[in-house]
Amino acid sequence: MQVRLIYRFGVAVLSWLALLARSSASKDTEILVLRQEVAVLRRVNPEPRLEWTDRVMLAALSRMLPKGLRLHRVVTPGTLLRWHRRMVTRKWTQPRSPGRPPLEDGLAELIVRLARENRAWGVVRIQGELRRLGHRIGAGTIRRIRRKPVLGGLINQYRPAA
After folding, report:
1. Is 54 exposed, middle or buried (0-12, 13-18, 19+ CB in 10 A)?
2. Cα–Cα distance measured from residue 61 to residue 31, given in angstroms and rounded to the nearest whole number
3. In whole angstroms, how large is the CA radius of gyration of the chain?
4. Residue among 151, 142, 150 at smallest CA distance from 121
5. At what angle do helices 139-147 and 107-117 cross, to 10 degrees?
6. Which of 14, 70, 81, 121 could staple 125 via S-S, CB 3.0–4.6 A?
7. Are 9 and 57 in contact (CB under 8 A)?
8. Cα-Cα end-to-end distance for the chain
9. Is the dihedral of CA 93, 95, 97, 101 positive or negative?
């Protein structure tokens, strides 16, 4: 990653050195052409996706611009602050805690429906039917779902009488 940044920086420095040998008229012409290209690109893609190396270079170069020109660039002070907040958030947020993933949508309703429609089925039978449908779910999870109150009634009422 750092090699890429050093490479980009080196290319920028070499291009600046090459500008010293050119005439003022050719530089002005190039600036006009580049401004027109930027205007066209802003119309086509108003929110360009920049890589992190682009962000570093633009942030460093924006410090050299006069204050009046900073506001009309891709990298405004607000953009720099947003990038910094995003970087800090990514750096300091804790990873998700380990554990089982949540149930897929509708799986709890399917378990309740299987238990309601097939009163003689136990947890193991429901687990087997779910596996045949492509869902791997533990027996304890099925028990927990059957015990939860659902829409004013208890799922336990659908258990077969012993």
Report:
1. middle
2. 16
3. 31
4. 142
5. 80
6. 121
7. yes
8. 66
9. positive
Using alpha carbons, list the distances in angstroms from residue 95 to 28, 89, 99, 122, 124.
50, 12, 12, 38, 34
3-class DSSP state of 150: strand
Domain-by-domain residue ranges, the chain? 2-92, 107-158
Per-residue pLDDT of the chain (162 residues; tens, 9 = 90+): 688 888 888 988 888 887 788 788 777 787 777 777 777 777 777 777 777 777 777 777 767 766 666 666 666 677 778 888 888 887 777 777 777 778 887 899 999 999 999 999 999 999 999 999 999 999 999 999 988 765 444 444 444 444
Structure tokens at 84: 């910094």
- Give the CA-trace dihedral at 33, 34, 39, 42, to 10 degrees: 150
